[in-house]
Amino acid sequence: MHGVDPDQFRQLLGRFATGVTVLTTRDPQGHPIGMTASSVASVSLHPPLVLVSVDHANDMHAALKAAPRFVLNVLAASSARSRGRRPGVTTRCSSAS
Length: 97
Fold this sequence. Notes:
Helix content is 26%, strand content 29%. It is of the alpha+beta class. It has one domain (6-92): Electron Transport, Fmn-binding Protein, Chain A (Pnp Oxidase, Chain A, Roll), CATH 2.30.110. The relative contact order is 0.26. The mean pLDDT is 76.
């Protein structure tokens, strides 16, 4: 799949006033990496752009600069409560076998 469906993008961001998101990608070595992001904003529908603030000192910053793509997951309220993580905390993900 390339990109995101514009109608679906508009619908999602139109309903997202605030909440918890998880930003994921792969680092330059191909390892999955993710972080919670509580500050997310819609910038444009055409092209679809979002703004997420990531500290330059965070490992996620370098991973995002090198990555050709990323995924922004919007968590349901029940999922956000169960995560128990602080916004901006980077997690190295292990592969499930």
